[in-house]
Design brief:
alpha/beta, 45% helix, Rossmann fold, 6-stranded parallel sheet, 15% strand, 4-stranded parallel sheet, globular, 267 residues
């Protein structure tokens, strides 16, 4: 038994889509969430910078006495997960491996599209994770850097978003992919526009659900699940005030929360 909370961090507020899946699956667990809203997006930055930021994020969460950490940010998972595991003595979970495994389960024609930030695509993390498991799968990767600011601005069903999604994804439609892995926590907020563009026959995969499954399995196997039936009060922190936190929080978690602003540079 371990009643300490679970830490989750993201480059912004997109990681709330991951936090929501963890909260749904692990109802007895408390979540401490940090969104680095002062430095979003991570996807346009170098691997070195992403790793530096990610280490600061982990140090903050450890100051909150968390028992495990989920790197909700796909860019951080793709570029910095190994460095984080080498640096910190705490169970750390990324989103790349679970996302790749789910995409392989979903595809029927073995043509998988990956959409993510430029940094995540350049890392080849998702591509390698898929090919390590099935070398016969054809993978088509497409960087969609404008999706993050559109999501952060709450333009989830706006006309400019629909045009942007179409411009980015026409290439994948032409490749006849039957599965698209959304390799960024912000992208599920645009799920409606993305699904409308690619059609109902294309399966959209978001790694969040599979991450929650892996997390639960680890905590159970190591006797680290929280005991008690009462609903937990989750904590949310951001590095810069943003009006979008409450809107996206309500969209992802179906409940209103407030976030505390902290100085991440202290960590």
């Amino acid at each position: 038994m371990d009643n300490r909370p679970i830490g989750v961090f993201d480059s912004g507020v997109g990681g709330l889509t991951v936090a929501s899946q963890i909260i749904k699956r692990l109802k007895n667990e408390k979540i401490v969430y940090f969104g680095d809203t002062a430095r979003v997006p991570y996807g346009t930055k170098t691997r070195e910078t992403v790793t530096k930021f990610s280490k600061q994020d982990v140090r903050f969460l450890l100051s909150q006495n968390v028992k495990a950490i989920v790197v909700a940010c796909n860019t951080a998972s793709a570029n910095s997960l190994s460095a984080l595991k080498e640096t910190f003595d705490v169970p750390i979970f990324g989103v790349v491996e679970p996302g790749a495994e789910e995409a392989l389960r979903m595809t029927k024609n073995k043509k998988v599209g990956i959409i993510a930030t430029s940094s995540t695509i350049k890392s080849n993390a998702f591509q390698n994770a898929i090919h390590d498991r099935d070398a016969e799968v054809k993978v088509f990767a497409k960087a969609c850097p404008l999706f993050v600011p559109l999501a952060e601005e709450g333009l989830w069903d706006d006309e400019i978003t629909k045009l942007t999604v179409k411009k980015y994804l026409n290439e994948l439609i032409y490749k006849d992919v039957d599965t698209i892995l959304m390799g960024c926590t912000h992208y599920p907020l645009l799920r409606g526009c993305i699904q409308e563009t690619v059609g109902r026959d294309v399966m959209l995969v978001e790694p969040a659900k599979e991450v929650s499954v892996a997390l639960e399995s680890y905590l159970r196997e190591n006797d680290m699940l929280c005991q008690g039936e009462e609903e937990k009060e989750h904590s949310f922190f951001i590095s810069d005030r943003t009006d979008m936190f409450e809107k996206i929080c309500e969209e992802a978690l179906k409940k209103k929360y407030t976030a505390t602003e902290i100085d991440i540079e202290k960590y």
